[in-house]
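Hi V.,

Quick status before I head out on leave. The structure for the redesign project is tokenized and pasted below; the design run finished overnight.
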């Protein structure tokens, strides 16, 4: 989960970026037309906010409404830096004021029901929003029920910090209060989950903090899996920057979590009990609660979608973007959420104009920081194929191992630039 805010773009520079984004996605934006319609967007994170921008730019005649629970949004990318005391949380705070200034209706409320037959959305505040097309970006729900012992209040003792905000600050406070020589455990759930490299980056940045302030401390990763994203790059960085400080316990070697013990502050795996001073308990995940309540999920817990339009295969006129969408091997990243937002916007505008939506490409870029000035990345391209979204052969590029320090510094700078750019596209 790798922010100072970017200056507001001029209209000319934004339109230039719009052209670049459309090029990357493999199809031009739908031309402006006289179509009228109502598009409601539930969720104002990267996917929802970017979708709102592009619907409005493609056809100003379409009425766009965003319903978002909170008036402020904290990005998950870079929140591990907050946990490690490298950055302040306020640097990751954004809002939807720029959207409102452009004519988007913004409602701060909690969606409690969606009626696919009547095409309406109901909120906790008692409001009803009718739609012709709905773009749903519900994020993830943390599935505590899947782990024995994860009873009410577990997040206050063993913070997940997987949704940026209060949990991020709580985990940081616990780490800062930890004794030198203490143990910090991070649990890694089964895949898929939001931001696959995130737990391993958290381990690295926590080790960065310990190296400076509590050098006798240890980080233990209890992993449900036996591999990790960017594995060779993570192992190289840990050995180089934090030798002996990070232990990665894979599933086959006793890392599979069976239950947690809140009172004793302990994780129990298939092979052993792991007591710790601080535990970041990241539980299994599934699509956000409103998606489940509306019947948009399948047995996997995620929302099946059409790979071209991202329209739900379970309810018509509802398009799912972001982490909640089930897209097989496509990573649940902020970059993919943004790509989905653009794709859904193009599809929705085309359908409201009576046109055929263009077939998209989904470009993913994921930067990781093992230290503030040590970065590496992976990128890939995905496209609809055989009813799913599949990786384009030979499209993946990964930072090389054994790279010189200046390359790691450059990639770290690129990571900061990436966040500024995607945040500007979504919120400014």
């Amino acid at each position: 989960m790798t922010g100072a805010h970017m200056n507001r773009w001029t209209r000319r520079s934004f339109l230039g970026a719009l052209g670049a984004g459309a090029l990357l996605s493999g199809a031009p934006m739908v031309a402006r037309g006289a179509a009228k319609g109502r598009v409601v967007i539930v969720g104002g994170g990267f996917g929802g906010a970017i979708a709102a921008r592009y619907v409005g730019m493609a056809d100003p005649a379409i009425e766009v409404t965003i319903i978002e629970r909170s008036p402020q949004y904290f990005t998950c990318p870079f929140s591990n830096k907050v946990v490690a005391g490298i950055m302040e949380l306020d640097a990751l705070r954004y809002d939807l004021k720029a959207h409102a200034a452009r004519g988007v209706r913004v409602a701060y409320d909690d969606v409690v029901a969606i009626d696919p037959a009547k095409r309406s959305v109901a909120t906790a505040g008692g409001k009803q929003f009718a739609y012709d097309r709905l773009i749903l970006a519900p994020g993830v729900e943390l599935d505590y029920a899947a782990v024995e012992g994860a009873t009410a209040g577990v997040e206050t003792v063993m913070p997940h910090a997987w949704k940026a905000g209060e949990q991020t600050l709580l985990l940081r406070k616990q780490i800062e209060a930890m004794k030198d020589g203490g143990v910090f455990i991070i649990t890694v759930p089964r895949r898929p989950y939001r931001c696959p490299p995130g737990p391993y980056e958290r381990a690295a940045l926590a080790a960065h903090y310990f190296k400076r302030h509590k050098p006798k401390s240890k980080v233990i990763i209890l992993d449900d899996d036996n591999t990790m994203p960017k594995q060779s790059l993570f192992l190289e960085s840990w050995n180089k920057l934090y030798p002996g400080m990070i232990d990665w316990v894979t599933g086959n070697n006793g890392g599979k979590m069976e239950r947690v013990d809140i009172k004793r502050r302990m994780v129990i795996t298939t092979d052993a009990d792991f007591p710790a001073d601080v535990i970041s308990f990241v539980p299994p995940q599934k699509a956000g609660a409103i998606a489940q309540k509306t019947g948009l999920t399948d047995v996997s817990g995620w929302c099946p979608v059409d790979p071209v339009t991202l329209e739900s295969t379970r309810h018509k006129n509802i398009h799912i973007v972001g982490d909640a969408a089930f897209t097989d091997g496509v990573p649940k990243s902020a970059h993919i959420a943004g790509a989905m937002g653009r794709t859904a916007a193009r599809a929705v505008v085309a359908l409201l104009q009576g046109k055929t939506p263009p077939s998209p490409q989904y470009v993913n870029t994921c930067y990781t920081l093992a230290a503030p000035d040590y970065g590496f990345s992976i990128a890939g391209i995905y496209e609809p194929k055989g009813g799913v979204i599949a990786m384009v052969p030979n499209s993946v590029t990964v930072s090389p191992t054994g790279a010189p320090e200046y390359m790691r510094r450059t990639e770290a700078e690129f990571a900061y630039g990436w966040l500024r750019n995607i945040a500007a596209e979504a919120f400014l």
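Above is the designed sequence. Residues 2-35 have pLDDT under 50 and may be disordered.

G. will cover questions while I'm gone.

Best,
W.
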